[in-house]
């Protein structure tokens, strides 16, 4: 390992790699739908497919009552 690379940079790269892999695996395993491709095979409809980052960003605006 190069000692010149700051720890936050290394952690950021690991987080980006994890997020991409998580999103790829979720898209392949979760029944979902998208605007461009429609619903998953074998399902009439499912929830919209969103990325881990988009979901986490939107969740911060949900209050304690769930609205």
Please, could you describe this protein's structure?
The protein is mostly helical. The protein has one domain (7-59). It is built from 2 helices and 2 strands; from the N terminus they run αββα. Strands 1-2 form a two-stranded antiparallel sheet. The longest helix is centred in the N-terminal third of the chain and has 23 residues, at 7-29.
Structural class: mainly alpha
Major sheet size, sense and barrel closure? 2 strands, antiparallel
**Which sequence of SSEs, written as H and E, runs from N to C?**
HEEH
Number of helices: 2
Oligomer status: single chain
Shape: flat
| Estimated radius of gyration | 17 Å
Name the average pLDDT: 80
Q: How many beta strands in the DSSP annotation?
A: 2
Q: How many structural domains can be distinguished in the coordinates? A: 1
N- and C-termini, Cα separation: 46 Å
- The stretches of 5 or more residues where confidence is low (pLDDT under 50) are none
Describe the structure in brief.
The protein has 67 residues and is mainly α. It has helices at residues 7-29, 52-59; strands at residues 33-34, 38-39. The chain has one domain (7-59).
Relevant terms:
flat; 6% strand; single chain; mainly alpha; 46% helix
